[in-house]
Write a structure and sequence with these properties.
The protein has about 70 residues and is mainly α. About 75% of the residues lie in helices and about 0% in strands.
């Protein structure tokens, strides 16, 4: 099994990637490129999903490392 640290590092990167793609979708209409409104809405959801995924994966704690710090 992969270590938990490795898993949560991957989740952080995935979350940041999803958020970046969502940000690009939301920013396209402002730069003059016309896209369907539904696609811009999906971009907003992608930003929220990426932010939550990254934040939760950063909040995880390894109990063994926590005990070592005490």
């Amino acid at each position: 099994f992969p270590s938990h640290d490795n898993l949560f590092e991957k989740l952080t990167k995935i979350g940041l990637t999803i958020g970046a793609i969502g940000g690009a979708l939301v920013a396209l209409p402002a730069s003059g490129i016309a896209i369907p409104a539904g696609l811009a809405t999906i971009g907003g959801y992608m930003i929220a999903t990426g932010a939550v995924t990254s934040a939760i994966s950063k909040l995880t704690v390894d109990p063994a490392q926590l005990e070592e710090q005490k």
